[in-house]
Every structure is written in structure tokens, then in C-alpha cells.
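Final report, section 2: Outcomes. Of the targets proposed, Co-chaperone DjlA N-terminal domain-containing protein is the one most frequently requested by collaborating groups, and we therefore present its record in full.
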Amino acid sequence: MFEKISRFLQDITNDGADEGARPNDARVAVVALCYQVMEADGVISESEQKRLRELMENQYGLHGAGLEDLISAGEEAGSEAVDFYRFTSDVKRHLDEDQRIRLIGLLWDIAYADGSRSEMEDNVVWRIAELIGVSGRDRVLERQAALKRAEIADEKDAENDE
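The predicted structure is given below as C-alpha cells.
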């Protein structure tokens, strides 16, 4: 698996992405943590997968094969993990406090992507926030902001349907 992720990182830099990619790339850890949230309620919905792609495109400026490679590497790493430590330690090592807080917001966006959040998703985001040093206050503020974003997106979808 390590070789597969290393190959992914080499390929992604050839697509014009971050030239300083490392074997413990925080982007793979971020996607793996997103998958942990998506899997928490036992169902990975199409809307969650779509939202993940949108968020990764916006966050990292990736498209096409580079985006798919990142998502595949993160999904594989997440499915092989027995806990969050490997990913949260990469995140703590490579992201500053503001970036870690934004990551929690991104995880909440994933949790709300299917129209609701479950108790299991709450628990996963809470545990990740604790491990990466995001305060309970910031976690709640990010959850509230993600809920507002989800409500606005739902309203826009409803307007487009009319």
C-alpha cells in the first residue's frame, strides 16, 4: 500500500499539483478522514461522494485523473486503517491550527451531504477534532456553519427544481 500511495504522490505532482508532496501527504490523510466520516453511518451515499469530489477540487485544485487518484489513495488508506491516529498525526504535522479547524468544517460538510447527520458521524468528527487539537467550541462553530451551508445548498436546489 505504501508503494501505491508513493506512486500516487509522484503522479499527482506531474499533474501540476503540489510539487512538495511527501509520502505522508496530508491530502491523503484528509481524504481518508472524510471516508471515515462517510462510512460512520454504514452508508456511503452518492451525495457524500459528490460532495467529497467538490470539496477536494476546491481545496486542492485537482481535476480528472489527479483528483481520482487522490480519492482512491485516501479511500484505500482509510479502509485499511484500524484507527484515526495515522491520519490525524499527519494532519497535525502538516496543517496549522486554522487549517485543522477548516478540516473539521469540511468533515461536517461531508456529514451533512446526504441531508442529515447521524450520531455516529458526530462521534467520528468529535474524535478527529480531539486528536488534531481543535477545541470543542471551534468544532461546534464549524458544525453550525456547515449546517447553514447545507441549508443554503438545499434552498438553491429547490429553486432550481421549480
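The chain has one domain: 2-161.
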